[in-house]
Amino acid sequence: MLSDIQRRRTIQYLPNDPDALVAFGFRSVQMFSLFNSMFVNADTLASLQIMQSEYHPNSHQRGPTSATSGAKESLSIYGLFSHMAVTPQGKLKLRRMFLQPSTDLDQIHERQWAISFFLRPGNIDALYSIRKDLRKIKDMRTIVMLLRKGIDSVGRKITVANSVWAMLQKFAAYSLQLRESLRTLPDAETVDVVKKVN
């Protein structure tokens, strides 16, 4: 992380530039523990086909950055499930679950119970409504970052409907709809993920 910040600083600023001292500053460093998580390296992910990128066969279609590299998730275990995550937060969480699998049996049982609960035949209509509500929820991390900076979305025309405050209002409205949809499910109080929403 620190080496990445140093590299970006040297690319964008000349040596002895006083602005480089304050560029890419950080306020704090937080430690996190991989306790109850399995360490899986890149070779293991590729060998077991848990995650595997596939590049465009035409080399002219590949760009220099990761966003324009032309890479997409190929036929892998993660690729089989990635289309089921419909929000940016959900996609990030799913990717993290594949990169750092849990070794906590209670958490694994909790996830299995939640999946079996939502796949019950009687919950299909409510599940469709929940997915519909989730698709409308935007990437709140970006919106909160813009709110902290005191600016609106960069690079596009700002209207009342697409401002940061409008996005926050939509997020609150869709979150309340989602909570109501979850409450209509029978025996929803037995699922931990539903309890967290309530």
Report what the structure shows.
By secondary structure, this protein is an all-alpha fold. The protein is built from nine helices and two strands; from the N terminus they run ααββααααααα. A two-stranded antiparallel sheet has the order 1-2. α6 (124-135) runs antiparallel to α8 and α7 packs antiparallel against α8 (164-183). It starts with a helix and ends with a helix. The mean pLDDT is 78.
Spell out the key features of this protein.
globular, mainly alpha, single chain, 198 residues
Quick description:
The chain has 198 residues and is mostly helical. It has helices at 2-12, 42-47, 77-82, 88-99, 105-118, 124-135, 140-149, 164-183, 192-197, and strands spanning 53-54, 72-73. The chain is globular, with a radius of gyration of 21 Å.
Structural class per helix/strand content? mainly alpha
Give the proportion of residues in helices: 40-55%
Radius of gyration: 21 Å
The biggest sheet, with number of strands, parallel, antiparallel or mixed sense and barrel status, is: 2 strands, antiparallel
> What's the total count of β strands?
2
Strand-residue proportion: under 5%
Please tell me the overall pLDDT: 78
Order of helices and strands: HHEEHHHHHHH
What topology does this entry show?
Elements: H1 2-12, H2 42-47, E1 53-54, E2 72-73, H3 77-82, H4 88-99, H5 105-118, H6 124-135, H7 140-149, H8 164-183, H9 192-197
Antiparallel strand pairs: 1-2
